């Protein structure tokens, strides 16, 4: 099963229920080499589901002292595709390795100017 590291709205119960039809359980972990920035959301569906106009977004630094705390969830392949549908175009799904050694997917800034 794919693992997804969430540091933002996918940790919210209401967002999980809207996208996956269930509440996810996960484990706390840390993503090294990234910092969290902010992005304004204009997608009406995402605004409605998250209740937030500003979302966090990962920016790669490559500096191992930069860390982002979050939660790792196990999803089905179908749920991972549903997560892709939820994330707006400013995000891109990439693979990463967490501090625990867990390989997972993350959603990070897609555009170089957001990284």
Q: Would you kindly provide a written description of the structure presented here, covering whatever features stand out?
A:
With 115 residues, the protein is an alpha+beta fold. The protein has a single domain (3-114), classed as Gamma-glutamyl cyclotransferase-like (Hypothetical upf0131 protein ytfp). The protein contains three helices and seven strands, in the order βαββαββαββ. It has helices spanning 13-20, 44-50, 77-86, and strands at 3-6, 26-32, 34-40, 54-60, 67-74, 91-97, 103-109. Strands 1-5-2 form a three-stranded antiparallel beta sheet, with no helix packed on it. A two-stranded antiparallel ribbon has the order 3-4. Strands 6-7 form a two-stranded antiparallel ribbon. It is globular and about 35 Å long. The model has no long low-confidence stretch (mean pLDDT 94).
Topology:
Layout: E1 3-6, H1 13-20, E2 26-32, E3 34-40, H2 44-50, E4 54-60, E5 67-74, H3 77-86, E6 91-97, E7 103-109
Antiparallel strand pairs: 1-5, 2-5, 3-4, 6-7
